Amino acid sequence: MKKIFIPLLAVILLASCNSEKKQEIAKEPAIAVKVSGVSENSNSPFVTASGKIEAKNSANLSTRMMGYVTKVHVQVGQKVNAGQLLVSINNTDLQAKRAQVDASILQASAGFNSAKKDYDRFVNLFKVQSASQKELDDMTARYEMAKAGLEGAKQMRNEVMAQFSYSNITAPFDGVVTNTFIKQGDMANPGMPLVSVEGASKLQVMAMVSENDIAAITKGMPVSVLVKSSNEKLNGKVSEVSISATNTGGQYLVKVDLDKTDATVLSGMFVNIQFPIANKANTSKSEVLLVPESALVKQGQLTGIYTIGTGNVAILRWLRVGKNFGEQVEVLSGLSADEQYIVSADGKLYNGATISVQ
What is the pLDDT of residues 260-286, one digit of tens each? Predict the structure, then answer.
């Protein structure tokens, strides 16, 4: 009897628990949602491309000489003017070379002055036939050699003085220090970046455009730029259009100069650029499906959308999306034109949640 009673009791308890769970699920209120069919791209007035803001004037400053950094005169975020001293590198060896060159110039000057006097004297003697042609030729050669020696010494000094510009790193334009790669006491090496400077007053956007749209984009075209982080809308103008995609993975580089911006727009921010050209998909016979970007669900690298399943439940469908068209996104696969999807919900949706269509 015990062997029969215990399994029966377990089955009764399990059935009772399942019944209670079903009752709890059934008692959950339906989430009110709004649905919409997939729209066709029939009147998109522009093509959108993603880009990144950067300073129009930017430079990573380095040096051609090796030496210890004696002082870094600026900090990250500091505003600098063109010609302002940024980094000093030890130049004791250059100072010694400059002293040697100065001494060589003095020596060459003395030799030149002496040779010039002798040359002038022999010219006068030759005129009165008191010196032979051979003597005048020898004195002329000596004079020219002394003149060349002095000029060579002066050019050596110019070379040394040019090296001093690489021991005192200055700002090439007005801007802001965005990074310092060294500190006092470090060894500066030729070609190694020392300080990064950007001209904050002029910003531009770097964007990559597909081959289907690049032919319609022209230099000087006005565009709208939407900053993703703040939803701020900016105006700009196309300044450069690349005609080659050899080194950019099949995408064409387009640069856009931004109009005057406020302090909240910074270099490095991501943006969407709207080019006022008709999308070529409008004239295509194939159907282009667009859904609002606000209706999409993103989990890591995956993008999905909630559709309506049997029994009015929310079903999460993963999609493969394409280009952005303003606030809408092209759906390449995962959703058909005759399906409805959830645009918004009054509560938090999850896979299998009961919904009520409004």
Answer: 777 788 888 888 888 887 555 444 434
Amino acid letter at 19?
Answer: S
Helical packing angle, 92-127 and 133-164, nearest 10°: 160
Given this model, what pLDDT does residue 284 score? 44
Burial zone of 262 (CB within 10 Å; 0-12 exposed, 13-18 middle, 19+ buried):
exposed
Task: Give the model's pLDDT for residue 300.
Answer: 85
For 65, 90, 101, 105, the CA distances from 157, given in Å and listed in that order, are 17, 19, 6, 8
Instruction: Identify the pLDDT of residue 60.
Output: 92
* pLDDT value at residue 17: 52
pLDDT at 43: 47
Residue 331 CB contacts under 8 Å (≥ 6 apart), including other chains: 38, 289, 290, 291, 319, 320, 321, 322
**Low-confidence residues in the chain, pLDDT < 50:** 1-6, 8-13, 15, 21-25, 40-43, 281-286
- Spatial separation of the C-alpha atoms in residues 163 and 66, rounded to whole Å: 11
pTM: 0.55
Q: Determine how β-strand 31-37 pairs with β-strand 355-357.
A: parallel
Report whether 62 contacts 194 (CB < 8 A).
yes
Do 308 and 355 meet the contact criterion of CB atoms below 8 Å apart?
A: yes
What Rg, from alpha-carbon coordinates, does the chain have?
39
